[in-house]
Amino acid sequence: MNALRIGLIGTGYMGKCHALAWNAVAPVFGDIERPRLAMLGEADEALAARRARELGFERATGDWRRLVADPGIDVISITTPNALHAEMAIAALKAGKHVWCEKPMAPSLAEAEAMHAAWRASGKVAVLGYNYIQNPLIRHIKATIDDGTIGTVNHVRIEMDEDFMADAATPFTPRSAASSGYGALDDFGVHALSLLFTLFGHVRRVFADMAKPYADRPLAAGGRRAVENHDAATMLADVEGGVRAVVQLNRAAWGRKGRIAVQIFGSKGAIVYDQERMNEAQLYVAEGPVAQQGYRTLLAGPAHKPYDRFIPAPGHSLGFNELKVIECRQLIARIAGETSVLIDFDDGLRMERALHAAAESFRAGRWIDVG
Amino acid sequence: MNALRIGLIGTGYMGKCHALAWNAVAPVFGDIERPRLAMLGEADEALAARRARELGFERATGDWRRLVADPGIDVISITTPNALHAEMAIAALKAGKHVWCEKPMAPSLAEAEAMHAAWRASGKVAVLGYNYIQNPLIRHIKATIDDGTIGTVNHVRIEMDEDFMADAATPFTPRSAASSGYGALDDFGVHALSLLFTLFGHVRRVFADMAKPYADRPLAAGGRRAVENHDAATMLADVEGGVRAVVQLNRAAWGRKGRIAVQIFGSKGAIVYDQERMNEAQLYVAEGPVAQQGYRTLLAGPAHKPYDRFIPAPGHSLGFNELKVIECRQLIARIAGETSVLIDFDDGLRMERALHAAAESFRAGRWIDVG
Amino acid sequence: MNALRIGLIGTGYMGKCHALAWNAVAPVFGDIERPRLAMLGEADEALAARRARELGFERATGDWRRLVADPGIDVISITTPNALHAEMAIAALKAGKHVWCEKPMAPSLAEAEAMHAAWRASGKVAVLGYNYIQNPLIRHIKATIDDGTIGTVNHVRIEMDEDFMADAATPFTPRSAASSGYGALDDFGVHALSLLFTLFGHVRRVFADMAKPYADRPLAAGGRRAVENHDAATMLADVEGGVRAVVQLNRAAWGRKGRIAVQIFGSKGAIVYDQERMNEAQLYVAEGPVAQQGYRTLLAGPAHKPYDRFIPAPGHSLGFNELKVIECRQLIARIAGETSVLIDFDDGLRMERALHAAAESFRAGRWIDVG
Amino acid sequence: MNALRIGLIGTGYMGKCHALAWNAVAPVFGDIERPRLAMLGEADEALAARRARELGFERATGDWRRLVADPGIDVISITTPNALHAEMAIAALKAGKHVWCEKPMAPSLAEAEAMHAAWRASGKVAVLGYNYIQNPLIRHIKATIDDGTIGTVNHVRIEMDEDFMADAATPFTPRSAASSGYGALDDFGVHALSLLFTLFGHVRRVFADMAKPYADRPLAAGGRRAVENHDAATMLADVEGGVRAVVQLNRAAWGRKGRIAVQIFGSKGAIVYDQERMNEAQLYVAEGPVAQQGYRTLLAGPAHKPYDRFIPAPGHSLGFNELKVIECRQLIARIAGETSVLIDFDDGLRMERALHAAAESFRAGRWIDVG
After folding, report:
1. Pair C141, C282 in one domain
2. CB contact at 8 A, A19 and A11
3. CB contacts, 8 Å: D310 with chain A
4. What is the pTM of this model?
5. Quick one: C173 and C248 in the same domain?
6. Does one domain contain both C184 and C113?
7. Residue D107 · residue D82 · CB < 8 Å
8. Which of C124, C155, C180 marks a domain boundary?
9. The sheet that has A5-9: what strands, in order across it?
10. Strand, helix or coil for residue A306
């Protein structure tokens, strides 16, 4: 395969993360042509030029449509705010580009469905940026489940918590407006669903509750404004394969910074994981003398592929950004028609349907089947 | 106050725990008359005599009614299987004895209400054995919440998990029969509710889901029998004071032995606790430089009263049995008309109403107000 | 065996601990005659009487010699300050009593040797209060080492740390005077040696370093006084069986409350333990797929005898005081001529010789063979 | 400053790590010219060409002397086996290149001194690859010490443990030969000294002990060969500023993968860190109510610079490789004459002198002053 030519739209949090991944993927893996960082799109020409220089892109533009239309680009990373995803992704797919879009697809289900339709029509690769599923330990957890080490899984708990909305004094921003979505449910819920999907399958039935830790927030200009969405949410879910899941989401949980705590219980053992300690997993297997049984802390190492591509020694810690490098390598494999683990627009859409069903459940106060 | 004269009915798990507490309470606290261990009741005379000798009781009987009727007894510890609580407690209260009954009150709400009525009529003290609330660190957590250290609490999570039902090969026992109750919901749920009540108040509204990890279990005589209750349950609850709670209960959670994991989130901080490490609590306070904030592990010590009555040095670990000694001291205080922290038949009944409402919610698939 | 008749001298920290153990040992184990708490000795009659009433002793005396001479006493718990051990233990042994003396034997080696000689002459049982070795998990660790699970042990680390001397503002007390001993070396070192001895054997060669975190301390009356011993010490030791040990002791280690952190490395695995989490041990066994290897957290439970005598359910936590109950049961077994795990005056003396050799090593700046 | 032109010699473990850092440093920091990856040197032309392509270098050579002589190179990363460092570094400095050499300097003190002399003569920058000191949390720990938060530090413990030599069945390799050095003492000891130096200063006096867990190892060709160096070592050290340190090093410690456990005790608090959880540090400050004191777990975040250059959100984990990116940025600063935290050939030489003094101490069985 010739070197892929990359376009990047957006250079915020995840935009930089994409840029770092495109820079690192070839030296890390050593088995692909180094992608050409062809063009960077930002809100205006000056910013675009500055960021291109910083991040190593050859060209820059203040008009994302020019980037999408450029014939010298094969793949487009879309890392702009969620509300812009649909328009950009659809345009990119129509222009015959592969798309790597940050999660979630879009605030509304209708937009997500339009993205899905555009993908179906395009014949191109379109995947979503669910990086947590790329952790070698998550891969290992999946393998451990699939080989029966913990028996048949019956129960899963996921908690995703951060604290960026925990301070009552944090002013009202668009994040608290209804237009940005349901709140924690879509902000965090998609990550939880990406793990459930990767490990077990899609959600079939859901019940949800949501909560507002703070009814209103201060306005910069003075006065207060009612918060329109929910910083905390709980989902009960029936998942394919007979797994029952409880998902708790809270972006107002003081002291939690990047917690994604997973507990998986099976008929022969259990697995526990927390993203805040992303280089550790805990495994319990009910075998051997009772006096010697216990949760075992696995430290990530070369035995957990592709950790070995980054570091030859165990226990030396991968970082968050490196998960995106793995995702990038998976995307390149997908484009080359090779096996890969990714969430495409099809599975992504199903996950977002589950979220919207959850929101409906909250309004109705009862269980909802996911269409 | 003269030395209390104690009767004990039942010498299983909690019966021995009561006996140890009655033996230890005077030397530990050093501020009360040593109770007289007057009479022990067991299933037959021989067993009763043996246990009385082992546990230090003066007299023994194979007929609990004789114990209840004995004029030389002031307080009766009832530690028999749940199905026997109501008859015994009612008889004891009618006989003018104070009652210390292990949790929960009874399998059916009707029986619990009858116990409550008997208590009201008796003028005696009647309390339930919720020992986890007696942990000095739980007291400290309550004080920390009450003094505003973590601001206004908005969200609480409790997980209670053990693994005694985790093995699919465990035979069908009465514990899996409908007659023993709902399963994890009442087996474990009352402990979770005891903590919620102690820290925040009673549950006002509840939604519940329950699950059977195993549909049936082997019979000793061959064949299999359908499991009639649920080894796992989840409750969403609105609690007095505006706290939202998520309670997860699982007695089939491999590797969990005595986990009661509590997470409390407030507007200024958070507190985390796990009964498996009952001498530790974690406190996060959102103050000072961000770079120096973090969850702080408090090790139980003399500063957490009444730890100091057991050990003068910090970090030396109280044990599970010692919580019952504290509960015993609280009971003696209650009988003496002094301030005490205990769950009496009134609050106990309200907690059991919440459980029955949860079961109704599961059947109905919707939220239920607790009467 | 008839009920043992107990005398207790001293009711401070460990005195109360002994009293609790004598009260609890029969109901906990259920297989022995309840000891009779015959007489308590304290500094004066009034205090002795008060404590006897609190702790459940029948008689009291302000003169310990009367207690030692009393024909109605079989065993004497000696829990007074270390400087008094020798005189009391020797008198008790001469009076034909069994002796249960708190550790260490005595500040000077000469006194310890005199105690040893008195014991040899007496034909009685004389053991020291090394309670940490009684933890069911320490027993389990020993069994795990002995059965070869971690192969041949080659390296051991022990850290014992508390912080009661960590505050520079803590006034000068006798604890900082040379007359009280070397400092951390004897204060803590004996505990570390008790673990080394229990698990591996005696120390044969030692090198030590000691440090004074604070050169002087304030006097209550004003002014300051030079600290005469060392709050921190390190010992390198060759232990019987070819084990190399590094022992670190610090009573000025802020935030450590009862830390006794043990790391044991063998040819096939490792074991880690920390007394601050006395219900947990960690076991690493180098077997099975590398990707599934890790330190396994064992939670104390009935499989670790005699935990089962205290609580029938795993993961429910024993406490520090309960270790003394186990030690008490061992003492009763020893008196009855049964198998027991205890440190008697012979092994205790060898341990104290190792400490004095360590002190000599520090002065000389070289390795010293333990005589 | 113009873009630096980089030469890299060696592409093993640390060679790849350097290559990843040179690729990432500009996009991560965004404030420097992207370095030009000019030439890569490996053992032969074919391998060099392949690695150059993988790692993104423009040119390749099988002869490191050509690389050193190339006028189109400004900085040379030397990541070859330790025995080659001296010759290459001296040649590079003589050729007027800046040198970034992996630790340690060289197996013998004479070589290290020659490297030092070449550096003094060159006027160029020459630094060593001590990446652990670049962790934002280590920087934060240093700042926390320097601002007095934990008072005056009096005692430090460092343990560095891995298990790559733990298996007795691991064959004899050059690592076990005397020619490769002392064993754990220099293999790991330099890392421990780099932390001591960064936080406190140089070692002034040292006592050491070393141990061989296995006396011999199997040879591939059959038979066994005596192990010539020591897989475990302990150093007691007096450090500048009055700090006493105990350093334990073990490359045969089963289950430890990248442990560098640091404990720092001061007059007002303590700090604890473990490289296996490199995104966490623990801080204890002896202030506020005793009941609320405890070790506080700090999770790395943007408040710990330059974490923010990698990820804008806290608690999302940096990785081991990213420490090298920070080191790379420090090197660029050093070359530009800006402030930087690095270990140059001067401090590096002093650290290696301490190691050789430790080895002498072991031989002599006494304390040795570091020259």
Report:
1. yes
2. yes
3. 319, 321
4. 0.98
5. yes
6. no
7. yes
8. C124
9. A59-61, A36-41, A5-9, A75-78, A98-101, A126-128, A343-344
10. coil
Residues A200, A180: one domain?
yes
| Contact between D104 and D89 (Cβ < 8 Å) | no
Contacts of C154 in chain D (CB under 8 A): 211, 213, 232, 252
3-state class of D54 per DSSP? helix
Q: Among C234, C254, C266, whose Cβ lies nearest the Cβ of D246? A: C234
From C75, C90, C124, the end of a domain falls on: C124
CA pair distance B294, D303, nearest whole angstrom: 12
Decide if C36 contacts C58 (C-beta within 8 A).
Answer: yes
Q: CATH number of the domain that D293 lies in?
A: 3.30.360.10
Specify whether C271 is located in the same domain as C296.
Answer: yes
Interchain CB distance below 8 Å, D298 and B296: no
Residue found under tokens 């998520």: B246
* C292: nearest CB among A283, A289, A295: A283
Closest residue of chain B to C13, computed from CA coordinates: B312
Three-state DSSP class for residue B297: strand
SS3 A282: strand
Q: State both tokens at A287.
A: 């075998």
State the DSSP H helix or E strand holding residue C260, giving kind and residue range, or none if neither: strand C259-266
Q: Among residues A260, C68, A161, which one has the least CA distance to residue B265?
A: A161
Number of folded domains that form chain B = 2
pLDDT in tens, C25-54: 999 999 999 999 999 999 999 999 999 999
Domain that holds residue A146: 133-369
Residues A309-365 pLDDT 10s: 999 999 999 999 999 999 999 999 999 999 999 999 999 999 999 999 999 999 999
* All chains having 3 or more CB pairs closer than 8 angstroms to chain A: B, C, D
- C-alpha closest to that of C169 among C259, C254, C257: C254
**What is the complex's ipTM, to 2 decimals?**
0.97
What CATH number does the domain containing D48 carry?
3.40.50.720
What are the start-end ranges of the E strands in A166-288?
A: 203-211, 216-218, 224-226, 232-239, 243-250, 259-266, 269-274, 280-285
Residues A334 and A314 in one domain: yes
| Interchain pair D294, B289: CB under 8 A | no
C-alpha dist (Å) from residue A185 to A190, A193, A198, B338, C261? 8, 10, 19, 48, 43
Alpha carbon D218 to its chain's center: 30
Query: Is residue C222 domain-shared with residue C155, that is, in the same domain?
Result: yes
Mind listing the pLDDT tens digit of every residue in chain B (371 residues)?
Answer: 689 999 999 999 999 999 999 999 999 999 999 999 999 999 999 999 999 999 999 999 999 999 999 999 999 999 999 999 999 999 999 999 999 999 999 989 999 999 999 999 999 999 999 999 999 999 999 999 999 999 999 999 999 999 999 999 999 999 999 988 999 999 999 999 999 999 999 999 999 999 999 999 999 889 999 999 999 999 999 999 999 999 999 999 999 999 999 999 999 999 999 999 999 999 999 999 999 999 999 999 999 999 999 999 999 999 999 999 999 999 999 999 999 999 999 999 999 999 999 999 999 999 999 98
Residue with tokens 């060409």: D49
D341 and D218, same structural domain?
yes
Nearest Cα of chain B lies from the Cα of C49 at a distance, in angstroms, of 12
